[in-house]
Amino acid sequence: MLNRSRRLRSSALLRGMVRETRMSPDALIYPLFLQEGSDICQPIPSLPGQFHYSPDRVAAGVEQALEAGVNKFLLFGLPCHKDACGSEAYNDQGIVQQGLRAIRQAFGQQVYLVTDVCMCEYTSHGHCGILDGQTVDNDKTLEYLARIAVSHAQAGADMVAPSDMMDGRVLAIRQALDANGLQNTPILSYAVKYASSFYGPFRDAAGSAPSFGDRKTYQMDCHNWKEALKEAATDEQEGADLLMVKPALAYLDVIREVSRHTNLPLAAYSVSGEYAMIKAAAAQGLIDEYGVMCESAVSVFRAGADILITYYAKELAQAMRKGDIG
Ligand code: PBG
User: Which residues make Cβ contacts (< 8 Å) with residue 271, sequence separation at least 6?
Assistant: First the structure.
């Protein structure tokens, strides 16, 4: 005698109807790397299939995503010039600001543009804030982060996403946005961000590896999950509009816990190392890339995420359109 679950698996259409996890391309965000200069559309060696774009060439990358059904982007910038206080990050003519204007001019309101607010790509030492000796000065960094967020929003960012992990930055950014008439700009806080080896390929791609030490004093310890609830609650109180857990795959339990404790929309970031692992194993013929990509994405939504930031956004949107997932 077949049990009920078995009967519910008896046809593809029925399986589609009784799925417990629903996903849509609306919930995908695609990261894009903007590089200062012109005529650049350069493959990123550590992230096969991803490119560095100069502002004059980025429209092609956006267009491909739109064709696949993805209209939300997370922008990162690679400046020509770095200094101790990351001044290019809040330069009105900086790389992200230029990229925002170029994309907006080409696509108007068809696209939703989120910017990563951090300093590590812009500082000569590669840390996510202003240094005092060998350590990051939390409170001094806040005013810089606020300036960066305001500058991004003024250049056309629809949403800002602070990824630095300084304490108090959501409140500092909220106050600065409001003081500049940007009350409608939401903050997606990288609230639960672990100090992770999975960021390796990104740091190569963004040139943002710290020149000494690590990020363990400001990013979270992978042994902890209650701390994630504290971080999420603090950012929620400070005024975050959406929260994020990062990385995704090795932290599905954390996604589940945070999703149960917050009423805010929850994003998960399937980071560079997750993508690179699948790519590398697939290139060796060890796994089925499409299947593993789909299954990993489903697991993140099943765990409780509402939004997924992923380098596979285009391919996943197509898989959803075909009905393979979602
Ligand atoms: C900036 C930042 C990082 C990532 C997103 N924003 C790197 C880091 O914290 O070292 C990682 C994204 C990825 O690995 O795909 N602080």
Answer: 196, 198, 199, 202, 246, 247, 248
